[in-house]
Design goal:
By secondary structure, the chain is an all-alpha fold. It has 7 helices and no strands.
Length: 211
Amino acid sequence: MATPAQILANSQNAQKSAGAKTAAGKQASSQNRTTHGLASSLHNHATMYFLEDENIENWKALFDRIVAEYKPQTETEVILVRRMAQHEWLRARALRLQSSCFPEPEEEMHMMATEHFALYLRYQTTHDRAFYKALNELQKLREQRRKEQIGFESQKRDEAAAIRAEKTLNLRIQEFQIKKLRFERSQQPQQTTSAPVPQAEQSPGDQKMAA
């Protein structure tokens, strides 16, 4: 348990390190986030903030690999895939910055180094989660489009089946009507008429004999 003297000393030390008080100190403090570039507000769909020791070609290679793996098909998918690449890049940056806090194993762990390490660790976790969030959104988007495509194809199949069924029904109706007509004609009585036999012309001699 801390003694009253230790509590008082800690309080005085805290007041001394409560933050920047001069204009120059405040300006430097406001630029802290740009020294590590891990804040998401520094990056968007079109631009990336790079540190001096980072190679933009490595970023392009990472982006190309992720694009080749997930093959975005729409503008929204392109944005999500780029977001995944950004968060993976920043996660790796946060991990690299953690190791820079204590370059020498025997170096004493100062309070400032510990605070920076904790900050970088938080950013590492943040970007790691953000990566999987973007991946989850990408998968949901593709699953939704897949279901819509299945529904569209099913609808087209149903429409084609309905057209085939209607054509089959029409053919059966036509066949039935033809059979019915043939049957009705077969049941009609056949009308037979005897034509009068023409008489042969008689010669004048035959007419006298008959008289």
